[in-house]
Amino acid sequence: MGRKKKKILLENVLVADAGSKGKSISRLENGLVLFVEGAVPGDVCDVLVHKKRRSFLEGKPVKFHSYSEKRREPKCEHFGLCGGCKWQFMDYEHQVDYKQKEVVDALSRIGGIELPEVSPILKCENEFRYRNKMDFAFTNRRWITEEESAEGKEITDRNGAGFRVAGFWDKVINLNECHLQAEPSNAIRKAARDYAIAHELDFFDIADKEGFLRALTLRMSSTGEIMVLFQFFYEDKEKREGLLEHMHQQFPEITSLLYTINDKGNESIFDLNIITYFGEDCIYEEMEGLKFKIGPKSFYQTNSKQAYELYKVARDFADIQKDDIVYDLYTGTGTIAQFVSKNAMKVIGVESVPEAIEAAKENAKNNQIDNCKFYVGDMKEVFTEDFIRKNGRPDVVITDPPRDGMHKKVIGQLLDVGAKKIVYVSCNPATQARDLALMTEHYIVTKVQPVDMFPQTYHVENVVLLEKK
After folding, report:
1. What pTM does this model have?
2. N or C, where is the chain less crowded by C-beta within 10 Å?
3. Active-site residue flag, 427
């Protein structure tokens, strides 16, 4: 039988800085880096270490001796339990300062990039109620609060709807209020939960893979349209129609009421058949007179107002001329491609999700844009020399890859193509820095613009302009 490892308690730790993924940093006298989850730079606290490695430690505060002046009282009652808003206890001005620093550190330290003057981060006008899409889980194993546990009573009402507890795949917080999406988001979630409890619908058991009511997705557009998508684990026409009709009657403002039957091991909907119960099968976003169709499987930036600011930066950096051929890699539903198209001779968009490309083509048609062409496929397989011969050698490339960044094969092709400008939009400065490092032999970074898309979180978007040497 192995010996239990002795827990390490570090006393009076001054938290010095903010690091990646929402953790703060302290440097110990022995040279080790200590990552602290749940502290703000400037806090002095005792930290209980739960992970020890050769070059770093990780831990959580167990006692605070003094609090940082950068702290504030979290707005959300679920803060600390929900994993969504890890920086809500930090003043917004300090949040954006650390995001700016993260971008600079990633590009200079990870990428070894010689940086121009980095523009001040574009702050988000709304700290709260900015998300246009939220995903909630239904559960028959809701999280039991400390207050409930302290009462010592038997708890029989375990049904709930909300977010998963940070660090637990099978526990869900029964949300009272989330501050990230505008109303009627909370009202819709609560109404569905309350109806299901009153009518004894079985909530999903994620461990045993059983139960009727599984998940709920809410999408709300800047045009005022609302999409509601329910996931049921199995079909039960009477129960399903009862719930859907109740939601339709209670919330006539819902413009797209959808459902799907999902008996898989995960909640991904990309391989599922989505059925319209009421209204349209989509909602629409609008930007500078352009309308974009958003289906249940579509990717669209989850902060509509700030997406507009982000796309304006990308367009300004690209500085497209009337004779330019533009490639928009990882185009999604073709939003950026169409946003910049009026300045270009033609725009070529590439995306791996077939439904997104269908939406892009439909959007272009509806927007009466005839100089955009869209292709579907794996970027590293589609973006080839034959593809370039067919569509023309790009003068400008805009690339907006997922968090993992670009495949080396795609980067290699970009270098072979030799466009005069590359605008790299990224939601992960670390992978962006890695990719940029592979391109510095042929390109120089001339502009950097961080954009805060997600207040209360550590996530930051960044736009970089590369110009050919």
Report:
1. 0.91
2. N
3. yes
